[in-house]
Amino acid sequence: MNDIQLPWSFFNIHGLEFNGQISFLKAGLYYADHITAVSPTYAREITEPQFAYGMEGLLQQRHREGRLSGVLNGVDEKIWSPETDLLLASRYTRDTLEDKAENKRQLQIAMGLKVDDKVPLFAVVSRLTSQKGLDLVLEALPGLLEQGGQLALLGAGDPVLQEGFLAAAAEYPGQVGVQIGYHEAFRIALWAARTSFWCPAVLNRAA
């Protein structure tokens, strides 16, 4: 306690102490005015022992007090709108979907994919981890490509998965495009161009 310049009165069950140690996580949960989780479902789940890892008593108390809630992920339609986004090669609406084709063409060119407005283009924007199901994408990829599909991937993470997707891009030129890293403008272009979006997470806290 001396090292973090707090009085020893904070080191108790109603403070920083957790299993005889200082827990900054518990301190945050205890002293927060309000706790938010990534979804209402997950807010309920973390009050249960199998998800709370010893913090269930505190989290259950905060739930009873109305100080624990879940806020489901969403999008700001003023920003995430293909009708107004200035970063798109071609803006479109639900009534002008034919204008979406130019976004697809530009993305195919940028990612080294065969330019074809009829081919289904599958997109992945994600951290490359098994938790996000990216190993499943690699496993399913040959079957997708055999049926004429294309994959455009933007992300970074597990070096093994990164190498796996880069190897797939080399093995299937014109069908697989991979961009390691994260670029906001590229993400917007990919979202606007894709036929379908893949998000095969094994564990999704925002459920």
UniProtKB/TrEMBL annotation:
UniProt keyword annotations, A-Z: Glycosyltransferase, Transferase
InterPro entries named among the record's database cross-references: Starch_synth_cat_dom
Catalysed reactions, as listed in the record: [(1->4)-alpha-D-glucosyl](n) + ADP-alpha-D-glucose = [(1->4)-alpha-D-glucosyl](n+1) + ADP + H(+)
A family per Pfam: Glyco_transf_5
Gene3D superfamilies: Glycogen Phosphorylase B
MF-aspect GO terms: alpha-1,4-glucan glucosyltransferase (ADP-glucose donor) activity
EC numbers, comma separated: 2.4.1.21
Protein name in UniProt: starch synthase
Originating organism: Escherichia coli
